[in-house]
Amino acid sequence: MNVQVTAGEQMLSEIVSMLFDWLPTIDVEQVRNKLSSIISKYHVQKVENHEVHPDLHEKINLFLASKKLEGLSPITLDSYKLDLKIFAEHVKKRTSEITSADIRVYLSQFQNLKMSSIGKKLSVIKSFFSWLASEEFIQRDPAAKLKPPKIEKRLPKALTIEELELLRESCQTNRQRAFIEVLYATGCRLSEIYQLNREDINFHTQSTKVIGKGNKEREVYFSFRAMYHLKKYLMSRNDNEPALFITERKPYRRLSKRGIQREIAKIASLAGLEKRVSPHTLRHTFATLTLNNGAELAAVQAMLGHESPSTTQIYAQLTDEKKREQHKKYLVQ
Q1: Cα–Cα distance for residue pair 278/232, rounded to 1 Å
Q2: Is 280 a catalytic residue?
């Protein structure tokens, strides 16, 4: 008769066998009986090699719960959850058993990703293990000594004034023109524009408040041109949808982030621009042209919602024309 061995019995047999190898003189039956009485108080489940260890799942859930209480945005939490889920499915170990080598091997499999993307994955892992160590779930942080990959510094591909005008002239609908003007004038991220409602716009002060990274609120401002084209777009609508930007066809609903990206790409195609244009390109353009026009770095930093001045500093690259102007103005002859 084939009797199924429980996980507890299997564990008991392995422990007794290991003890007997170390101490051949022990009374095997006596040790087995004593250990059996202890193990019977617990539910033992064997983790197969192809399964994620439940301890790792549990610690990831606790980490995400902790970060939620700290005020991280749902978008950031979802990103953390996805990265850690992929990590857990690859490693399949108890958290205390994960080594630096395990993390390196995991990251090395993403050979087709950009260094910046691999750096982001490492950043999430470092945050996770740093939290585990601070909460004393593990004694040693295996990610502490891992350094982020070197990322090639490239200037953001901002539009020139001429290219921006080409985009404006290529708009075919009120909604398209409103997209261009609002994204450029405010310097907002795609996620910030996506979640705006009509009632959020203060037409008197020509401004609105958006929720940025880290769930932080800031005020952004519209230009007269942006305000004009936004009003024109809103007046052309006859729906009750609260969203600032909606679909063109019924049933009217908030336009998705992907929908906004497609619309911007469509306008760029109509303009004949060879470079890739996205909502983030218009954010880069806002930052670059504003700084080149003499705005203070601290002010642009606040308008973009950057925590560190160094993040804003990458936009402070003078155009050739501006450099020539500064050379003529300040060179001592």
Answers
A1: 23
A2: yes
Q: How far apart are the first and last CA of the chain?
A: 103
What is the amino acid identity at position 302? A
pLDDT, tens digit, 9 for 90 and up, residues 258-276: 999 999 999 999 999 988 8
pLDDT at 66: 93
| pLDDT tops 50 at residue 143 | yes
Instruction: Report the alpha-carbon distance of residue 80 to residue 125 in Å, rounded.
Output: 9
Q: Give the residue-averaged pLDDT of 289-308.
A: 84
Instruction: List Cβ neighbours of 273 (8 Å cut-off, separation of 6 or more).
Output: 159, 163, 166, 167
pLDDT at 175: 96
Phi, psi (5° rounding) for residue 176? Answer: -60, -45
Which residues have C-beta within 8 Å of that of residue 155, sequence separation ≥ 6?
314, 317
* Residue of higher predicted confidence among 254 and 76: 254
Catalytic annotation present for 275? no
Candidates 106, 184, 194, 315; catalytic one: 315
Residue 315 annotated in active site: yes
Q: How many CB atoms lie within 10 A of CB 126?
A: 18
Q: Which two tokens stand for residue 293?
A: 């026009």
DSSP one-letter code for 207: E
Instruction: Give the active site residue among 90, 168, 254, 280.
Output: 280
Pick the catalytic residue: 90, 94, 189, 257? Answer: 189
Write down the mean pLDDT value for the chain.
85
